[in-house]
């Protein structure tokens, strides 16, 4: 029996006995996990058993992901607020556990596995006396070749619900200087995904603070800033791009402060999109960002059909040179205001968040949390103010040149 069929068998049984809300609304605490009555256990032969006690049964789905190996369980109406999934212990084959909200009405539990595993069974029986439920998932060992084949989220999407079609607005016109430049600021990570963490500092929290400060500085300078998130919540990569497109953004800035496990790196770096990474560190960072996306959402950027792919490539012939000029301007602005830049301050990598074909986009690594000097800078209000001033100056110079070019193209 396949992993998908196991999930839908469990769902079918569940829907017969439990009425679920028809629309996806914010969590209403229909079910709460009890970690004191839950467990992770090693099974003979290299497997793992998860037993999660819930206050009542709910619709759910189970699947595995690869690179790195993970077990993912999505729940309809399970409220994890105030509960740390890290308390799930007992198995040496599970490296970490985390949980949180991923979209209105849905939460996710992720187990990082020490080795690739295959889903053997999944069920959620209900206690007829107490009304409580227990999700029981069993994983068996599998070599990487076998584990990779069924890995990935189910193709079935009916549980998520489909949004109603919306009328499409006319395509945005390139800014010719006649209106304020709309800048979408994207503080990386958030919510269930804290990003890099060092010395009690999380990338998600730090970039949210800097993103808000940068938005204020841009507004004072006459720009029109929009944040992809204004609080500590998870926003999938594809949703960040959707927010920028819905805002009719003139450009997109993604803010990060990552960490490297090996080697010493410090200073700010500005990235533009490329299919090949500039160096090994760039490849590692791109891999980390995309893996974080898979933690709580699935990046479908490689699922474009041929015609859409051609159209996007055509769009990038216009936006990519503009992104390159934007990156160079930000490098100059940061260099003039904070000085400390990475040895190669303008680099390229296959960051998914930069793949919007119609919006000039850059990703700014403000520094590395693995560097003590960078941590001191990033946590300094004065340094962040100077960095924001450098970016504002860069965008002002870029906007002037870009508007002049747009005026020439319209003649």
UniProtKB/TrEMBL annotation:
Keyword Flavoprotein appears in the UniProt entry: no
CDD domains assigned to the protein according to its UniProt record, in alphabetical order: MurNAc-LAA
Residue ranges occupied by any MurNAc-LAA domain in the UniProt entry: 241-396
Catalyzed chemical reaction(s): Hydrolyzes the link between N-acetylmuramoyl residues and L-amino acid residues in certain cell-wall glycopeptides
Keyword rRNA-binding recorded: no
UniProt-listed Enzyme Commission number(s): 3.5.1.28
Signal sequence range: 1-24
SMART domains with a match to the protein in the record: Ami_3
Recorded superkingdom: Bacteria
MF-aspect GO terms: N-acetylmuramoyl-L-alanine amidase activity
Pfam families given in the database record: Amidase_3, AMIN
The entry's keywords: Hydrolase, Signal
UniProt GO cellular component terms: outer membrane-bounded periplasmic space
GO biological-process terms attached to the record: peptidoglycan catabolic process
Protein name, as recorded: N-acetylmuramoyl-L-alanine amidase
Organism: Rhodovulum kholense
């Amino acid at each position: 029996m396949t992993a998908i069929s196991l999930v839908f068998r469990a769902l079918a049984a569940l829907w017969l006995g439990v009425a679920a809300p028809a629309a996806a609304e914010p969590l209403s605490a229909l079910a709460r996990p009890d970690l004191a009555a839950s467990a992770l256990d090693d099974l003979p032969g290299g497997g793992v058993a998860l037993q999660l006690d819930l206050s009542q049964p709910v619709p759910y789905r189970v699947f595995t992901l690869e690179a790195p190996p993970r077990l993912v369980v999505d729940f309809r109406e399970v409220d994890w607020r105030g509960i740390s999934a890290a308390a799930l212990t007992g198995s040496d084959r599970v490296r970490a556990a985390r949980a949180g909200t991923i979209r209105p009405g849905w939460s996710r539990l992720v187990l990082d596995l020490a080795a690739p595993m295959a889903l053997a069974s999944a069920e959620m029986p209900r206690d007829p006396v107490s009304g409580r439920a227990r999700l029981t998932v069993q994983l068996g060992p599998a070599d990487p070749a076998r584990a990779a084949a069924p890995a990935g989220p189910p193709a079935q999407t009916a549980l998520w619900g489909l949004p109603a079609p919306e009328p499409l607005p006319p395509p945005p016109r390139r800014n010719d200087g006649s209106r304020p430049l709309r800048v979408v600021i994207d503080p990386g990570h958030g919510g269930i995904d804290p990003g890099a963490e060092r010395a009690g500092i999380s990338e998600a929290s730090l970039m949210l603070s800097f993103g808000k400060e940068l938005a204020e500085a841009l507004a004072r300078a006459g720009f029109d800033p929009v944040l992809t998130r204004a609080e500590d919540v998870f926003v999938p990569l594809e949703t960040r791009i959707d927010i920028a497109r819905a805002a009719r953004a003139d450009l997109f800035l993604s803010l990060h402060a990552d960490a490297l496990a090996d080697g010493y790196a410090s200073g700010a770096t500005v990235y533009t999109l490329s299919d090949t990474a500039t160096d090994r560190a760039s490849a590692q960072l791109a891999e980390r960002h995309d893996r974080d996306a898979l933690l709580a959402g699935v990046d479908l950027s490689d699922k474009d059909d041929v015609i859409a792919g051609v159209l996007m490539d055509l769009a990038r012939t216009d936006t990519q040179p503009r992104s390159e000029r934007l990156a160079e301007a930000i490098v100059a602005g940061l260099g003039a205001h904070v000085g400390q830049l990475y040895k190669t301050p303008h680099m390229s990598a296959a960051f998914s968040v930069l793949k919007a074909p119609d919006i000039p986009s850059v990703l700014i690594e403000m520094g590395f949390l693995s560097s003590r000097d960078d941590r001191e800078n990033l946590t300094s209000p004065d340094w962040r103010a100077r960095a924001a001033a450098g970016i504002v100056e860069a965008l002002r110079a870029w906007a002037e040149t870009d508007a002049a070019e747009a005026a020439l193209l319209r003649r």
